[in-house]
């Protein structure tokens, strides 16, 4: 992981030096104070102390600032790196992770893991240095003092370790309960209209009260646990402090140390103890972030899409009307163990529209995945103008296609940005307007207060489904790619809008090579090229009339959509 | 000042009717005070021991020291628990009051506040109400601590105390200022954080679009810009933190310089021992820290203010009206007369509509998205009252009837009427107040096509449905919802896209169950496809919040273009 991230070494070195300086100054703090207080209240001693404290203040500030600054810088660099990787990750990796997990890896997991690791990396050695030197210093006073500080430590650690184990399970149970109760209340609140409709207010009132009281109990259990743990720790700390005082007093009385040393020791003991506890906690911190570090590393090492391949290959179909633009040749595809396509062969003739239909899970979307090379076939080949898509450079391959999804084709930003997203050349406003007009989007763009500069919400939510799709159509029209891939472009729209949008698509892209994946049978009458998929295999290929006559599955799908009785399909 | 009075009034209103554990609050205050006293005692005892250690060891002193130290530890434990108990009790009682209120609010309120917002009101916001009590107790304790500390310091040396006061004052002011600056820095950081997260979430959810558009480089750069902005915003936070440390250290230096320059003279004059000087220094430090912590509660108060406002807003909203006569009249037509309605200030969802829903028949309402169909349903349920115009039941304005009994006569099956977590049985019997025999239960579940698949599920009717009914498929959930509606035996049935987004097999099951449900009831359905309107004897065509046409299906086919194309689409 170290190699992947651009670590700001000079800054880290600087922070390290300042950290050492800080600890060095910290080492002199008790002795300086002690000298001043133990009677040698001469001017020089006090002035010396004042100057010292001043420099201490400056160093502390510098240390705090640098540490924070360097940690944030490292986090920023790591994030840039991960983001770059994430964008180019292979689709099979992407599809096997939830977007939430992925985002959390870049944000929370990264902050916690990189932040902690950077910080620890800078402060561990100086901390240890401080401890060793501090113990040496009081050791110079008297060895017994060292013992008094060190002996409680292993006891303390053992104690907190045992306590920690005991706590962990109980704590998890309690916080789990709190989560459940909160979730229960949340569900009820979200369903208040339902409660009103059913007139169950009384019943839910009681339920809510019970849940609230249960929540209180669970909180109290958590508190009991916490207070018990804290109390026990405080007791240990107190015992430690008492030990220190007793030792010091005894040694002072017996003349083995003097007042200055006593005071210095007293001041040291608290810092040494807290520093030891801190150092022990470093280990705990690392263990806590283990899971997060693992997730970050996983993404950094995630398989990237291979961009290898030759140039664009043959330009758009110059070879004549008959030669197919796209061909599937005995293609087989698996997602893990699941079979998606089995020995699928069909052609997508150039300049025409080909429809790919089938029930859910029949492999329609998989076909598009293979064309865009989101996935690669296990067997057989998909060719574009005769060239295997795996041999074409990824960027060039994808630039040949326009890809219209069911929805979510627009990111937040201005309408102008949405219309030119992914288009490499500069597009004039005039062109934008014409394209939008052709796609039937101009009238609503015009109605918006800032027109083309109107800012859209995330995922284009400020527009209706139909409006979004029209924007996407306009954009793809501008892009003027060779082949148009449509993945159920009207499924998310209501009947009326769907009809209007599909009419626009047909009109605008007449003469282009189009591959339309759909389950809306009403778009098909009159089409010449329809491929019917079922359970990963081709069961029909031909024109609409042809299929209605000869393919029972096709006819069934058409009829069931029309709401008539369902007939059983013959096995084909 | 007026703001303060308003806030106090708000706060008092929140606690009206809530039983506050005054006794426990007093106990907490007492414990806090004792704790403070013990803290101070520890310092003085330590100073005494150091002093005394130069002569004979005073065993009594040592024992006293040990006892006090251990008591302090025990005390803080007891105090922690008691505090938490008391504050949580207060929070819980207010939470129950909020809950009560939520059950009685009108639907308009829920539209304005999203579900998640309301949830956080009840859960998170309520956990902040006891804040003012906490602050009050902390304030009193701080005052006590100050008094006792100053007394002790005066006992040690009046001269030094004077100097200490001079230094503490600017310290307090500085930390107050820093607190404000810190809040601003926090806001900046929050804003960039939200922006960056929003960007990342949106892109990550739709990586396909990025890849298909070949915009990886572009998005990478945009990401870098966001991260850089975030980094810069963090300088604020880091800077402020370090500055406060610096300032505090400087004041520290000043106080040391003063204390020891002046103190040195006093020691030499024999007016104070070194140990006592050390003790003085420690006590004044403790006091300073206490005041700084008190200053920091300022931001806690600000934060809590915000939450309290929200809670108070909910509590101040008027309830749904609960009066009216029992809805116990003979069947009649539902008639709308010139009804207009808008959801909170936007353009009219219903624009002066008039219609008739004939009793005992099946009426279909059709129209494109946003035509106002679902809004009409909400008015039938009386989730809202029309802004103008009247909804009549026969001759009576529906507002005459008691809401409870009115709603009991309506059953809804729609896409967004979810199941609540609980068992299947609980869901089917939801809201049913009469006793239902097992035979009736089984009969109804069979009619709703629920019996078979539930019996095939482990646990049968006592199986949990999961959050939102997630343990069952969409079709199965609908059937359970239909069973639920049947169980209520309503006179009127409202069906809203009940079979949309279901696969063929489920659709068949649900359609059958619906047919059974519709027998003998007046049905109003929102239809999105022509086949769903089969059996309807009355049709209402809506467009843009207006009723375009109304009549029998045959009349509509003849006279209404929209209905014609609507019917044509299916074939």
Question: Keywords for this structure?
Answer:
heterodimer; A: 572 residues; alpha/beta; six-stranded mixed beta sheet; four-stranded antiparallel beta sheet; 19 helices; 62% helix; disordered C terminus; B: 571 residues; 10% strand; elongated
Question: What can you see in these coordinates?
Answer:
The complex is a heterodimer of chains A (572) and B (571). Chain A contains 19 helices and 12 strands. By secondary structure, chain A is of the alpha/beta class. In chain A, the strands form 3 sheets. A 6-stranded mixed sheet of chain A has the order 6-9-10-3-11-12, with helices on both faces. A 4-stranded antiparallel sheet of chain A has the order 2-1-4-5, covered by helices on one side. In chain A, a hairpin with a 2-residue loop joins strand 4 (379-384) and strand 5. Chain B is α/β, with parallel strands linked by helices and 571 residues long. Chain B is built from 19 helices and 10 strands. In chain B, strand 7 (492-496), helix 17 and strand 8 form a beta-alpha-beta unit. The radius of gyration of chain B is 35 Å and the shape is elongated. The chains are: A alpha/beta (572), B alpha/beta (571).
Layout of secondary structure:
The complex is a heterodimer of chains A (572) and B (571).
Chain A (H helix, E strand, L loop, with lengths): L8 H29 L5 H45 L3 H5 L3 H43 L1 H8 L1 H39 L1 H7 L2 H53 L5 H30 L1 H11 L23 E12 L2 E12 L3 E6 L5 H8 L7 E6 L2 E2 L5 H6 L1 E4 L8 E2 H6 L8 H10 L3 H6 L7 E2 L8 H15 L3 E5 L7 H14 L4 E6 L10 E6 L2 E6 L1 H7 L1 H10 L11
Parallel strand pairs in A: 3-10, 3-11, 6-9, 9-10
Antiparallel strand pairs in A: 1-2, 1-4, 4-5, 7-8, 11-12
Helix pairs in contact in A: 1-2, 1-4, 1-9, 2-4, 4-5, 4-9, 4-10, 5-8, 6-8, 8-9, 14-16, 16-17, 18-19
Chain B lengths: L1 H14 L6 H31 L6 H44 L4 H6 L2 H8 L8 H26 L1 H48 L1 H7 L2 H53 L5 H43 L17 E8 L8 E8 L4 E5 L6 H8 L7 E6 L2 E2 L5 H6 L1 E5 L9 H5 L9 H10 L3 H5 L18 H15 L3 E5 L7 H15 L3 E5 L11 E6 L2 E6 L1 H7 L1 H8 L3
Parallel strand pairs in B: 3-8, 3-9, 6-7, 7-8
Antiparallel strand pairs in B: 1-2, 1-4, 4-5, 9-10
Helix pairs in contact in B: 1-10, 2-3, 2-6, 2-10, 6-7, 6-10, 7-9, 7-10, 14-16, 16-17, 18-19
